[in-house]
Amino acid sequence: MTVFSELRMRPAPASSAGWDASTTARLVMAGAVIFVLLVGANLATPLYPLLQAELGLTPLDVSAAFASYVLSLVATLMLAGHWSDHIGRRAALLLAVLTGLAGGWVFAGADSLAALCTGRALQGVAVALATGASAAALRELLPSRPEWASRFTLLASAGGVAAGPVLGGLLSLLPGATSAPYTVYSVVLAALLVPLYLIRARPAIMLPAVSRPLQVLAPRPLAVPGNARGAFWLASAVGFLSFAVFGFCLSLAPGDFAQVLETQSRPLIGLLAALPLGASALSQLVTLRGRYTVPAGLAVLGGSVILLGAAGAWHSPLLLVVAAVAAGAGQGLAFRTTFNEVAAVVEPLRHAQTVSTVYVITYLGSAVPVLGLGWLAGLAGQEAAVAGFVLACGTAALALSVLTLVRAVRRHGRS
Predict the structure, then answer these.
(1) Whole-angstrom Cα distance, residue 94 to residue 112?
(2) What is the mean pLDDT of residues 351-363?
(3) pLDDT of 75-112, one tens digit each?
(4) Which of 43, 93, 103, 382 meets the CB 3.0–4.6 Å disulfide criterion with 377?
């Protein structure tokens, strides 16, 4: 299959041309694309305080710039989350990389809030196109090990989000603090185009009828197989809540972290913002099973989020670090377990669409609460708004922990 035949949704004549990559190489490529795109989408985290000062942005403006990425991501998942089933995984990833390059270029040269939002929106489109395609490709490459396919998906996703702020802070030390990170990112992302173009792609799993090829790309209503609905709603609830915490860490929290540590070091601020995401990514490497894994993970997440607020109020750097790491570890265990339950019961033909639907709700957690936080900060001040936000998120996580504990106990009793 050539790229052009994939985009036209037409099977190409059999050919030995192209790179016949091994399964390992294909796994690396599928994970690398979503990883690098998410790195680029989060390079701006330690730059927000600098952009606030340069462009005169308010907390609500920063929330709007962050949310424009999430909202465009969610919209694209809803409109095009199923495209990779029809045009092929490789073609969808290529489109994602090209869109990501455009988004990074616009954001790097932004001199207004509108330009920032446009660049962030393009980055959201790129991540959305890659999300379902990457997850489905990993699942297809590991058909007998769906749990590891899910782990690789979450490891690449959480790892990319965690690495973005750290690399953004470090690269901002180069000349052109707000543009240098995106120059380096663009070079790396462009390099991925070469193996993606050369690789001998597998055919799409659902080629359309010849008479109406574009009809299959039309938006579809969000749908989940009946046998997966219970697992889907639990994974979506855990995802929404935990991504609300991550959204806070990646948008307004860097300013708070800087005050706690009394520093303006962008690499240090980026590292602190990345701690929860890094802990979440590393937790994917830990094999921990049991009926109480989800309640325990949510309890750790809830308590740690409340401690994050306390660290800011008490100006305690040690408590800030410990709470951030614990929050990420708790989230990683809870979300991985619930995500695996969804992936295990969905047939391959519905995998990309179902995963995209989970991420629609999950990513909304990064946008809606953060927009509300930015609005509240403008009314009551950032310190009071953050205190209320972490208390609400922590309480919600603890309540969900109790509900999942009751569910686990009842299941155990029935068995």
Answers:
(1) 29
(2) 77
(3) 888 888 777 777 778 888 999 999 999 999 999 888 88
(4) 382
Given a cut of 50, whether residue 403 has pLDDT beyond it is: yes
Contacts of 49 by beta carbon, 8 Å cutoff, 6+ apart? 254, 255, 258, 264, 266, 269
**Can you tell me the distance from the alpha carbon of 251 to that of 375, in angstroms, rounded to the nearest whole number?**
13
Under a CB-based contact definition with an 8 Å cutoff, are residues 382 and 256 in contact?
A: yes
> Which of 18, 15, 38 is closest to 26 using CA atoms?
18
The token pair at 302 is 């809830």
pLDDT tier at 192 (50, 70, 90 boundaries)?
very high
> What is the C-alpha to C-alpha distance for residues 11 and 293, in angstroms, rounded to an integer?
45
| Burial (0-12, 13-18, 19+ Cβ within 10 Å), 102 | middle
User: Minimal CA–CA distance to 41: which of 68, 79, 78, 80?
Assistant: 68
Which residues touch 216 (CB under 8 Å, ≥6 apart)?
Answer: 9, 86, 206, 208
Mean pLDDT of 140-152: 78
Q: What does DSSP assign to residue 176? A: S
pLDDT confidence bin for 364, thresholds 50/70/90: confident
**How far out from the chain centre does Cα 71 lie?**
12
Say if CB 293 and CB 234 are below 8 A apart: no
Q: Hey, is 242 helix, strand or coil?
A: helix
Tokens representing 113? 């809030």
- Residue 415's contacts (CB-CB under 8 Å, 6 or more residues apart) are none
Separation of alpha carbons 357 and 342, rounded Å: 11
Residue entry with tokens 């035949």: 5
Contact present, 330 and 299 (Cβ < 8 Å): yes
Q: Which residue has the tokens 């749908």?
A: 223
131-165 residues labelled b (16+ CB within 10 A) or e (exposed): bbbbbbbbbbbbeeebbbbbbbbbbbbbbbbbbbb
- Please report which confidence band the pLDDT of residue 206 belongs to, taking 50, 70 and 90 as the band edges: low
pLDDT digits (tens, 9 = 90+) for 13-34: 545 566 777 888 888 998 999 9
Cα angle: 235, vertex 238, 242; to 5 degrees: 135
